[in-house]
Amino acid sequence: MFLKNAKTAIFLLMLLVIAKSSAQNKLKSHTVSQQFVSEYPSEKQWESIPVHPRLFANDARIETLKLQNDEVSKALLLLLKNNAEKTLKAGKIEYPSKGFKLEAVRNVQDRILTLGLAFQVFGDVRYFERAKAELMQLTELPDWNPSHFLDVGEATLAAGVGLDWFYNDFTPTEREKITQAIIKNGINPSLDVKESKENNSWMNANFNWNPVCNGGLLVGALAIYEREPKLARQIVERSIKYIPYHGAVYAPDGTYAEGMAYWSYGTLYQVAMIEALRSVFGSSFKIESFPGFLKSTNFITQNVGPTGYEYTFSDAGFKESKLSAKPLAERFTSEPLMFWFARENRNRVIARDEIISILLAKSIVIKDTVSNAQKKHSRHFALEVLWWDPKLPPMDKKSFLPLHWTADGHMPMAVIRSAWNDPLASYIAIKGGTPNNSHGHMDVGSFIIESNGVRWALDLGAESYDKMRAAKLDLWNYSQDSNRWTTFRPGPDSHNIVRFNNSRQDVSGLATISKLTDQKGVVGNVVDLTSLYKSQVEKVFRTVKMFPDKSIVIQDEWETGEKEGEYTFQWVTGAKVSIKPYGVLLEQNGESMKLNVEIPNSNVKPQILIEDVSKAKAVQDSDNPGVSRMLIKLKYAKMNKFVLKITAVPVK
């Protein structure tokens, strides 16, 4: 099935097969990926592994980095030194004796990456001494919590990079201690893990655990190759074999079903795998060539509204975007991956917002105006320093992504905006897909809307995992009857979706999105929601359109079968809501939006209700300060067709 040293042409052919069929089945990205033919390092490549340091950057790359003299490079090195100095002042990491260690191992990973690159660039022995202390503490732990294997993956990457980058400064005894910890606490526990046809093993998963665990272990294995060549080879080949299960989820247009935060997490580790392989073998073995992967930054950029806030679908937090169009105050870095993707695509536009963020961070440090609320830099900032390419082609000031973006795949999406670089622009983003996905919500057909600098329709994002665990919920169970859906935020109640008789969406469904033909400046999409409600009504479609005057239409159409019932249109907002003869008036931050509610070709008036959902409903729920839910209800008869239309008009 996975043939050694297969020809690239066969590999790319299989990629095209996946791209074509990615949206046909919600689990397709897991099953079809078995058709990939993987390439592995050749005997010659194994025999030619370079000396330490070799992971991500060798001595020659460090010397090149020191000579980079452009404004971004100078800012990156200043920030690297600043971060290293802050790390020297940081207290000792407290590792929990039992249970989750993820926060602690992420902290040590940050410290080792930061101090490691800073030591290579600046030569300050204080950075080495502190990094050694951090590594020794990590190696002395009895385990890295294999019961939650993300902890192991991240810890193994930290130890592997530390061993490699400081290899020539450690004593033989210190090298052996770190090597044995990587084997005992990282690699050996992974040998007990089996692949799973049910997509519940990190080894061959189609979600973020795959690259985090396989990527971290690959880095650790490459670091210890001299000591355990056979074992290292086994782990590297296993990681290359199974990464296609994750790589297939980007097809064909780069969307990521787990949401924007998990795109950053999973994609970072896949990129780390790519860069580790390139730095050691001179080849990535084509694991950056999955359809949609290299254009997945479109997914990130498109899902940031004119206000600078992300579309927080799935388990994402509601926060200011890492790619904000607003002043990038109170943070050091935004998204390290953007420099890597800009380099790979030879497109400086991809790095535009990241460049703004880095230069602003430099000015904050120089002026010493960092507040106590200053957001911490990315723990992968050191890799960002290495990924910046000063030789990127100049940026075309007129280069923007399309105003209307439609993406197919495991989680189809559509985004329409009236303009780029206009904080007052109108904007709507809508998603398809399925609730039955890692970190999925019951939010299919949900949307967000912005205009005049206000987000009028919200997605509240993730609920606290700790709260859900404390309530003894099966929070990773996405089945139809799972108690995960009783939690307000991930369940159906918090989303801007269609409801019939207040029922749940069908988790076996998969909504697709098609693009409408542009007509005189009117652009739009249709979401086929039928499979999400197949036991409730016969057909369901949601259409969204944007008009030249920046107004937005959301129209639901459904056909009923043998059952009568009640339709509900849910709209969650942070605005003041007033019911008017024409429908609803939303008011926030001195701005207004009219929602004209109508049933075309009918005198029937739907019922409009406003609910305060600002307070937690259950023990596992968080408060949602200032948030209301608008419910537009309509009784329907059996064996009939119905339409409800809402026109959202920004008030000038």
From TrEMBL:
It comes from the Bacteria. GO terms for molecular function: lyase activity. GO terms for cellular component: cell envelope. Pfam families: Hepar_II_III_C (PF07940). This is Heparinase II/III-like C-terminal domain-containing protein. Residues 427-583 form the Heparinase II/III-like C-terminal domain. Residues 1-23 form the signal peptide. Keywords: Signal. It is found in: Cell envelope. The lineage of its organism: Bacteria, Pseudomonadati, Bacteroidota, Flavobacteriia, Flavobacteriales. Gene3D superfamilies: 2.70.98.70, Chondroitin AC/alginate lyase.
